[in-house]
Amino acid sequence: MDFKYIVITAFLLLIFSTSVAQGYYNQENFGNRSLLLNGNVTGSVDDLGLTYYNPARIALIDEPAFSINAKAYQVTSLSLKNVFGRDNKLSDSKFQGVPSLLAGTFKIKKWEKHHFAYAFLSKQRSQLDINVRNEVTEGDIINEIPELERLASNLEMNNRETDEWFGGSWGMKIRENFSVGVSAFASVYNFKGQYDLRLATLNESQRVGFYNNFANFSQTSYGLFWKIGLAWKLKHIDFGLNVDLPYLEVIKSGKLSYGEFLSGYGADGDIYEYGDFSSLDSNRKEPLGVSIGAGIPWKKNTIHLKADWHAGIGEYDRLVIPPFDDGTGELKEINFSEELSSVINFGVGFEIFLNDRMNLFASFATDFSPLETNANIFDLVDDAETDVNIKADFMHYGLGVDFKFPRADITVGTTYASATDIFDRPVDFPDPEDGPIVPGNDDPSEIGLTRWRFIVGLEFPIFGYDVNFK
Description:
Number of helices: 4
CATH superfamily: Outer membrane protein transport protein (OMPP1/FadL/TodX)
Largest sheet: 14 strands, antiparallel, barrel
Oligomer: single chain
CATH topology: Porin
Number of domains: 1
Helix content: under 10%
Order of helices and strands: HHHEEEEEEEEEEEEEEEEEEEHEEEE
Structural class: mainly beta
Strand order of the largest sheet: 1-3-4-5-6-7-8-11-12-17-18-20-21-22
């Protein structure tokens, strides 16, 4: 495969992975039973996922025990179709751990009507690394430069995003069947990306050419997330409302280094561009969100319903990058921006009573992409050929069992997610079957992702007692 094919493939893997990391609201769920219900628990959460879904529920349910979020591992598969020609398909799979939750409850003796919980959760952990080394010695390595005889290439790309939350919840009954609650989380957010492409060529005259294009960026943000919850426990239904306030950024910073260099093709063809910036102004924005939900008992079973709305965010700069000299006296400008549209998601879960020791869980939830534009490493590389907008919508499914024992609850199960999208091919490659001068077909390309997660969770009282503070 020609190196240009490898570059485009790596690009698609990275752009899709960063889009998934940044742009979705229901990729992660927290709490053992809440996870199997795919987060459809705004009005009916009964585990310590309530710190995330609806803090008001802590005052209406039996005191939750110390909880270790289901330990989960996932197998993610990505496929690309018709990127390099008709019926051409590429795929990649990866096995890794996923974010988790550690939570518990405590009481303050003087405030008997108040309920408290603490939580530590990994809201986001994503990482993708690509490293490709190759040497091509066949003719016509690059169609536009047919005299090249050899090409050595090295491509390194990586993308890392983490968001760790630390905080807790408070809840109190206003009436016997109505409660209010608040959750507050401090967020430690880091977003980093690297792109480094190096090419060395040897032509028919035994002259060596060199090309290097790199970009490295980082964004750090410390701030606060607030959740306000209301919960009602009626005769034939439990109802809940949760409001996610926009992210309040407190401390922020950004860095960028960029370079593009070309030599060995004559003085007129040389390129020297370099910029190095620290303490850049940066922005992280998360919109207002509102979710409503209900738990409907039916005999010994429960139906869980949820719908949520997230507001849009107009285009803004995640990194504010000043213009810099491109080596010819002209100013080079780089945009690193993002824009989100508003979305509405919905879902349903079923909790089926099997016996006094066992409940079966099944669920479905949507996860529509809000991305209009996505800030990623390729915005910095400034390669017009890779301007591809991928906006895939996920469907989530869950199935598992909760076992109740005298001293602990154990939850086991699996979740499955899938998404596909159609997009225009990033470059127009010739179709090998039709000859080198015939343009590639105009059929759209397709990208698809599937994800299986396998989970085991544990919930138990700490040494048989609640944790109390006086």
